[in-house]
């Protein structure tokens, strides 16, 4: 089905383009690649907390603020004592299809629903298309493979073999270097609401704080919201004091956490519910639940969560 009823509509962005745009705003050599965080310590210095970060290559970094953006299996989240993410019972294949001569498709999201599976695609530009396929998996990682060529063949010849030719053609044009198959993880919303999202000058953002299933397409969006909100709070403190004052960081980060806690918890819950309803099958009972109840009432509430203004970075 086409998702065309939303007057605002989705906005697709190539992740590489987004990362490049963000990186271009940083001073040269700000980003360290191939760096793995192995341990975190804290020290008291002149009445405030300083974070000491140990990297796998032996590098030790002292920081006035530590923001863990290290993904679903976050070392920082574990250090804070946050409960581990849980397996949703589904896996997802994500790919990038490339049409050197152009794909000729409209810039609309196309989605296909079936019992225990969900598939779709959306053009990123006139030559590239993002596509996905999610399916129920009884055990975490049981059906995962590491070879991109095998993943593509499994989707085309097995999991999606009865989907329309247009979808299979998109999958066939996949860039194998960008093809992934992974379990869908999420953190229980109540662990976010009641969990320890910060300690002194240490906090988390993005998937490290609120991993969620991709059914509302809000994972990356909510991470950007985190960045704006956190940047605004830290920026205000910096402007007021002319520098980062370590002893004020606990209060500053606490304000960020409280502003984000309930919003991301609701996104996690709404995304999980949306995925469950849409992937539960096409029988008459589920179709009635989905079309007559969920889309008519609950989805309108859930979609409002995505139309959120997190404010600007004006200090």
UniProtKB/TrEMBL annotation:
Lineage, opening ranks: Eukaryota, Viridiplantae, Streptophyta, Embryophyta, Tracheophyta
TM region positions: none
Keyword Metal-binding recorded: no
Molecular function per GO: FAD binding; monooxygenase activity
InterPro entries according to UniProt: FAD-bd (IPR002938), FAD/NAD-bd_sf (IPR036188), MOase (IPR044560)
Listed name of the protein: FAD-binding domain-containing protein
A Pfam entry, by short name: FAD_binding_3
Stretches assigned to the FAD-binding domain: 19-235
Similarity comment text for this entry: Belongs to the 3-hydroxybenzoate 6-hydroxylase family.
Keyword terms of this UniProt record: Monooxygenase, Oxidoreductase
Keyword Oxidoreductase: yes
